[in-house]
Predict the structure.
Amino acid sequence: MSLIVSLRSEILKTKRTASLYFTIIAALFGPFMSMLDAVFGEGVSAGDGPAIFNKMMTDKFQATSLVMFPLFIILICTLLAQVEYRNNTWKQVLSSPQKKSNIFLAKFINTHLLLLTFLIINILAMFLTVVVLHFQHPSLQVLSQPINASEIIGTRLNTYCALLGMIALQFWLGLRFKNFITALAIGISCWIIGSMLVLEFHSGIGQYFPYSFSAYSVFPKYKPLLNTILYTSAAYAMVVMALAFVDFKTRGSKA
């Protein structure tokens, strides 16, 4: 079987789970909270200036980048791998006429498809929030303001690329452990430690710990380090995926 066939199989299995619904709900959380603030909270004022459109689309993504997206990665990477364990179908999958490399890559690509779906839904939902803000405060003329598309999209792409190392590690954990709680606990613990290293202790160790990298992608004060973080994350992803595949090949028949 080709990789396309294996990927199609993974997507069909995903449709039978709550993963897609969970993706939608998680992606909508940040924009929904921003919408509530725009409608019922203090919202914004004329003093926020003519760049409120771009500020809403970028600054409001910080909380999602720091909390919701990393947690979503941890959960979705673990959930997708657990489909085979929960249904006790690993032996059936591994005995099918599919290359192990295709099975491995199909699961990894399917994970990334959901992550990209999260980001697309998030940006569309945030735009809807901006529309609500426009009608809530018509004097600001939010929708008439110039759009910095490169900054809006770039902020999300930077977060995605900065977390490639974390995605690879969590994907390996999801495949490696049969117990859902074990992989989940390791991922959440590492994320908490990584967040504290950067935000609480301001430790330089965070620059080498993949679960810390999301903080570097959104805060302007870390912008000088961003390129280094992106290259480090990509390097982590390549090394971890190579190790994960070797582990998958040697342990696959025992799954």
